[in-house]
Amino acid sequence: MTTTATETPTTNVTPTTSLPKETASPGGTASVNTSFDWESICGKTPLEEIESDISRLKKTFRSGKTLDLDYRLDQIRNLAYAIRDNENKIRDAIKADLKRPDFETMAAEFSVQMGEFNYVVKNLPKWVKDEKVKGTSMAYWNSSPKIRKRPLGSVLVITPWNYPLILAVSPVLGAIAAGNTVALKMSEMSPNASKVIGDIMTAALDPQLFQCFFGGVPETTEILKHRWDKIMYTGNGKVGRIICEAANKYLTPVELELGGKSPVFVTKHCSNLEMAARRIIWGKFVNGGQTCVAPDYVLVCPEVHDKFVAACQKVLDKFYPNNSAESEMAHIATPLHYERLTGLLNSTRGKVVAGGTFNSATRFIAPTIVDGVDANDSLMQGELFGPLLPIVKAMSTEAACNFVLEHHPTPLAEYIFSDNNSEIDYIRDRVSSGGLVINDTLIHVGCVQAPFGGVGDSGNGGYHGKHTFDLFSHSQTVLRQPGWVEMLQKKRYPPYNKSNEKFVRRMVVPSPGFPREGDVRGFWSRLFN
User: Fold this and answer.
1) For residues 11 and 22, what is the distance between their CA atoms, to the nearest angstrom?
2) What is the helix, strand, coil percentage profile of the chain, to 5?
3) The domain containing residue 495 runs over which residues?
4) Were 136 and a residue from 41, 86, 115, 140 both cysteine, which residue would form a disulfide, CB within 3.0 to 4.6 Å?
């Protein structure tokens, strides 16, 4: 039986098939902006100014100005204090766009970003030092091989709308730390936050180092016509492919931070279903479900299915008691995203067991749980990126893994709720994902000491902290060969003879350091490694 979703006030919601052919995708840039006047709020960069702005950044990098460590640290400090001093202004701008509760903005954005500032400033002097290359053969004992971290040049960051502070500031922070000049394209889908954050960053940073661009598709297209030394894009796969096509003209490397349908496994060995429900409901509905690593759907074993659904209903009533447009919960960012989500909800063949109401005037969609969903349901055809949580009954842990592998492989995140280590290891080894959290959701994103990123369809690479520094750096191998070794090096020069070949072979062709047969690692290797 399917329970039809209702709107408050009650109206008919246009199905997704009637939306404009070009629509906004989760986390990305919209091609058509129906009833959404972003331009009057954040404006757009004049197309004729873009080339000169980019040229300025490239000229600055060629000057060598950004190579100085103290200069980089000064810029990072200026940005950190600018963000801190304008917290209320940024918070209010985000609320104007998303109606996001201040608590969520503090916990999900400011806390993580300020922690990353501290981590980078503390460790950057160590990161920029040359690394000694260890374990080389005798052929290199006298040339002192090192790895030097060099900045790439002028880089472009294209940021989404759903977490407008951290997804703009964090990549720029790492790019500056690595010694690059940076251009930042803000999202027009969160115009108030984009304008405020972009202006704060522009005022805080050296204009020779940083440029903020505003606008939509025409401006982004113009920016992508130019050669960049690296591009980082956070958003959806459709736009990501377009960016890769533009970058391919110059063989520009592209870092893609995408999304996908991040699954949650609730197995029969999950002993505390109410705790699992709390953590899943929290992770799903933070920011109105508009989070790239939000639990997209739940795979529940039949042994615990009914109890888990009941626990979710109980938790939802406690977290969001009003369940209306006045609830302390983020609303949907744009009319297009709202129409897409309500269209999917009206088309589902599952049973709405909680929520299901929405309000077009405020773009509010109540936190909604839909049970009895299968792979062919409207809610399972793409990343939801909204406050809709489908529940799929999986007959076994193996069946749940096969479901993911067949329909939504390589998600950005994967969540396992189980107390059985063998079962956890089985799921972990079968399903590849960008990040994995056991018995919780979302928390890996805030660990700035560890890389955050996707795999396969959910992106490539990883960033945060040192990993962002590495992302925008080139690891250059440097060797310094002293002149006095020429008496040995001359053995490598033509004309070749047997005596020289024997000497060089002894220097550069080692024998295998492992046995021909038996245990490759050996007793001592296993004992100490």
Assistant:
1) 24
2) 45, 15, 40
3) 483-528
4) 140
Within 8 A by CB and 6+ apart from 246, the residues are 221, 224, 225
Query: What does the angle CA 57 – CA 62 – CA 66 come to, to the nearest 5 degrees?
Result: 75
270 catalytically annotated: no
Residues 199 and 299 both lie in one domain:
no
Asked if residues 473 and 131 have their Cβ atoms less than 8 Å apart, the reply is no
Q: What CATH number corresponds to the domain at position 153? A: 3.40.605.10
Q: What is the pLDDT of residues 57-99, one digit of tens each?
A: 999 999 999 999 999 999 999 999 999 999 999 999 999 999 9
223 and 347 fall within a common domain: no
Domain count, the chain: 3
Residue 386 in 3-state DSSP?
coil
- 389 shares a domain with 267: yes
Does residue 31 fall inside a structural domain?
no
**pLDDT above 80: residue 324:** no
Active-site annotation holder among 292, 301, 312, 401? 292
The backbone torsions φ and ψ at residue 356, rounded to the nearest 5 degrees and listed phi first, read: 95, 0
**Bigger pLDDT: 276 or 28?**
276
pTM to 2 decimal places: 0.91
pLDDT for 174: 98
196 & 280 share domain: no
User: How confident is the model over 259-313, as pLDDT tens digits?
Assistant: 999 999 999 999 999 999 999 999 999 999 999 999 999 999 999 999 999 999 9
Selecting among 116, 222, 255, 257, the annotated active-site residue is 257
In a 13 Å sphere around the CA of 71, the CA atoms on its Cβ side amount to 15
| Residues whose CB is less than 8 angstroms from the CB of residue 275 and which lie 6 or more positions away in sequence, other chains included | none
> Looking at this protein, which amino acid is placed at residue 88?
N
| Residue 383 covered by a domain | yes
Do 371 and 443 fall into the same domain?
yes
Looking at the fold, whether 268 and 253 belong to one and the same domain comes out as no
312: annotated active-site residue: no
Same structural domain for residues 159 and 191?
yes
The H or E element containing residue 234 is: strand 230-234
